[in-house]
Please model this.
Amino acid sequence: MSSLKSVAVHSHEVSESKELLSLLPDSNGMAWIRGGDGLIGWGEFDRFEVTGSDRFEEIHLWWRERCAHFAIHDQVKKFGTGPILFLSGAFDVDEPSVAIIPKVVVGQRNGRTWITWFGDEPAPQLNSKTATEAPLNLSWVGGAISPAQWEIKVGNALARIYKGEISKVVLARDLLAHSDLPFDARHIMRKLSEKYGSTWIFNVDDLVGATPELLVRLNKGLVTSRILAGTIQRTGDDERDLALAASLARSSKDLEEHEYAVDSVAQMLAPFCSSTNVPETPFVLHLTNVMHLATDVTGVLTDSLAPADLFTMVRELHPSAAVCGTPRHAAQKAIKEIELMSRGRYAGPVGWVDSKGEGEIGIALRCAQINSANRREIRLFAGCGIVQGSDPAKEYAESQAKLLPIREALESQ
Model:
């Protein structure tokens, strides 16, 4: 018998809409926001940390047990109401994944705002907080892998590709920064939202970023995944960037990299869906710093007595070819042997799940990890897909471009 006691969970609509980020009381608040809409949460009702190959199943069982003891009073009944779990999964099975149930969640979508809270007390008041502080005397320290070492590692990956061991592998690098003031995730998210509002702005357990890639969304039986692979840096000149976008769309190297990523997701989703739609050609996604080849894969969940939930699909989809490579197991082996760096929760699943097993999970890209033990230190991450024809110097330049969103957010006042 479980020792958990029943607890009430209320969701009520709020008449006054407020900017979500302004409501977070401190840097530890959780967020998943795109274009101003999404969810924020604060306070910890409960949390769970787990490692191992069964980590997503274990989080699922833990969440299901808690939900069984919630007396849910949901007067809104929309996508994102009721009790919410924020998830940040590790890239590798040996690193800890984190699941957090906030005490308070505020959501906003299509002009409607709601609040969810635990207990039978009245709903908490929503008050905008004071301005957050930018980093003070920011300094860049370098990372676990020097630029020269990283280019050598790209060369090692290419050697494996030419030998036929792998078709694609994604290699990552990091960059450390220090500040005289603690890093505040709210300041970073606000700066990211100003320039990258079309991405998913997130913060879960001090992993903060702006990802353009959606691993999987499940809502009312509709499954969606946005895959990005193939990148070119923007110049800031609109006419020049249009020409670069056209060249990206024709690039055999980038199209090959993209095809690997799309095929891996489509194949993983197919068993769960009665039908899927995979566009024949990608579109070019224009972001402030880079442009990506992008494809939105959609599917209709199979109508059965036990349809797949979000945890099941995350387990199957992660790590996708977009952040790992192909074939998957060979690419994972290559990453362990070549990269020799802990990714932590970078490139892992991040997002939220509701009590019905629906929600939105992205891939933790364009992000940084605030050091929870020393909040004056932060670690940025970037990765590049290596395929036949990749050039180590160009891949390094691409990684620099992918670090730019977080760098700019930290350097902005």
Q: What stands out?
A: The chain has one domain: 7-411. The chain has a mean pLDDT of 93.
